[in-house]
Design goal:
By secondary structure, the chain is of the alpha/beta class. It folds into 2 domains: 184 residues, Rossmann fold; 88 residues, Rossmann fold. It has 11 helices and 16 strands. The strands form 3 sheets. A 7-stranded mixed sheet has the order 6-5-4-7-8-11-10, sandwiched between helices. Strand 15, helix 11 and strand 16 form a beta-alpha-beta unit. Helix 2 packs across helix 3. The longest helix has 30 residues. Bound molecules: zinc ion (ZN). The site of zinc ion has 8 residues, from loops.
Length: 387
């Protein structure tokens, strides 16, 4: 077993999770289709040499992204505010005004548009899953050019003062090669700043955000392993920090010519979190199993809020059928669809006016106030369980 960051032979598996849907965020238009989705196993390995955590059972050939994939978080005001303040901060910090910005894996271009609007920049987005109808609805302005392809050295003619890459690196099977390819593509812009954002594995290991373990993610980075990856790939790391209540990890870097010291950064804390994880995971899982059986015994009407990765993983972990009947999501593209693996119907918040649930499972505490406000407006008295 070779570590994908430092190539050492030392990684060993410390946690296993079987039978998880390959995709949490596919749109399943029928219940049968949702129940029949293909599944895979997660075997988390830890490299004691560079602190990296990854799924050593990951089979990239099983994943094939299509436009049926929907993971935009931009429907939530809370998330919009976060993204917009992030765009502001980066533009200000690196003085990205009237410049060129590349967004690798730009999704539907929401974040790129923010960076361009706030700094009057010209944006180039790369994403094979971009939906063409977005060009017609006016949300893609003349300052944005979206290329429906993966970013690679063949696009080195596109200039960048800032290269963003958010929630992409964790999906890449060969992260070292991916970073090398970005390095090659940017050779003519040595002054360009890179801004990467990934899920923070410490949120899972330290804060027990255990529903973030999904098959689509090959790598689970912490500030040490991502710094080691960037250094090994010829970048100078300018900053790393956590955002979104510790759930995300950001790294800022630029190309360097200096031959980097090959010394890898390590952390005893991370090794400790890894060694405690299996036991703490089991404890957390048990406590939710108890709550779910109480709901069943008392015939309570329960729904879960958020048909994103966390919600889908929670439902599949417990193979939930009747205890939670519906999943609420504010993304209209998900409403009317069914949850991969467990088959619950995804509904809009409005549905709750009639359904009047007794319990709402909230998958992400960060959205709690937003949800509470909506329920107050509906005059629904409901118990919240933050997962
Ligand atoms: Zn390693």
């Amino acid at each position: 077993m070779k570590c994908p960051v430092c190539e050492s032979d030392s990684p060993s598996v410390f946690f296993e999770m079987d039978d998880v849907p390959l995709f949490c965020n596919i749109l399943c238009s029928t219940k049968d289709y949702a129940l029949a989705v293909q599944k895979g196993d997660i075997k988390l390995a830890f490299c004691g040499d560079c602190m990296h955590v990854y799924n050593s059972d990951f089979k990239p050939e099983l994943l094939d992204y299509t436009p049926e994939y929907e993971n935009s978080l931009h429907f939530s005001n809370k998330f919009q505010d976060y993204a917009s303040s992030l765009a502001n901060t980066i533009v200000e910090k690196y003085n990205i005004q009237n410049k060129s910005v590349i967004d690798v894996g730009c999704g539907q271009g929401d974040f790129l548009k923010m960076v361009c609007d706030v700094g009057n920049n010209k944006g180039f987005g790369f994403d094979p899953s971009f939906r063409d109808e977005k060009r017609q609805d006016g949300s893609i302005s003349a300052d944005l050019e979206i290329i429906k392809d993966y970013y690679s050295p063949k696009y080195s003619n596109y200039s960048a003062d800032l290269l963003c890459c958010r929630h992409v690196l964790e999906h890449i099977f060969e992260p070292g090669q991916f970073m090398q390819s970005i390095r090659t593509a940017l050779q003519n812009r040595k002054d360009a700043v890179l801004f990467f954002e990934v899920p923070n594995v410490l949120y899972t290991l330290r804060d027990m955000g255990i529903w973030d373990l999904i098959y689509e993610h090959y790598s689970y980075f912490n500030s040490f392993s991502i710094t080691n990856l960037f250094k090994c790939s010829g970048f100078e790391v300018l900053d790393t920090y956590e955002t979104f209540a510790g759930q995300f990890l950001c790294i800022e870097a630029r190309l360097t010519d200096n031959s980097q010291s090959s010394e890898l950064m390590i952390s005893e804390d991370i090794s400790n979190y890894v060694s405690l994880f299996q036991k703490q995971y089991a404890e957390k899982k048990d406590s939710f199993a108890k709550q779910l059986s109480e709901i069943k015994e008392n015939n309570l009407k329960a729904v879960l809020w958020g048909a994103g990765s966390k919600g889908v993983t929670f439902l599949n972990t417990f193979k939930i059928k009747d205890e939670i009947q519906y999943i609420v999501d504010i993304n209209p593209r998900k409403q009317g669809m069914f949850v991969a693996g467990t088959g619950q119907k995804i509904i809009s918040p409005d549905f709750l006016r009639e359904f009047k649930p007794d319990v709402i499972f909230i998958m992400n505490a960060i959205y709690r106030n937003e949800i509470q406000k909506m329920m107050d407006e509906f005059q629904i008295d409901v118990k919240f369980l933050t997962v």
